[in-house]
# Entry
Amino acid sequence: MEVLRITALNLQSGVVLSIVEEANRKLLRFDKPVQLVEIQTDEALELASSLIEGTYRPTITDTIRNLKRESFFSEPRNSKDVRNRLAQVGRPASASAVSTALTKMVRSFEIIRTGSPRSYQYLIKESRVE
# Structure
């Protein structure tokens, strides 16, 4: 069978669930052996949408938010790091699309940006417990 599209969902449980679309069927593929997978409400909606309509593709911002949940930004990352990771998870994006998404996340206080233009680094602000 010819594979038409693969959509990767990075679940908060640490499992990557891929939906492999072929001409007349869809297959769910997990990146590790599982007996039970816990998924959050937003992940369930994303999965359902993808299975039912077959046209759902998470936005670049949504995919970067998944990377954030996976602690990708626990150390400083530049735009190229983000682009490379997006390509690895099956969601390649242009430099401008990644830059726009990162700026949107900075403005909504989801991540912080350090450095200067053309050399920005993005990371999660660590919370302090006192």
Summary: The chain has two domains: 3-53, 60-123. Residues 41-53 form the longest helix (13 residues). The chain has a mean pLDDT of 84. The two ends are 57 Å apart (CA to CA).
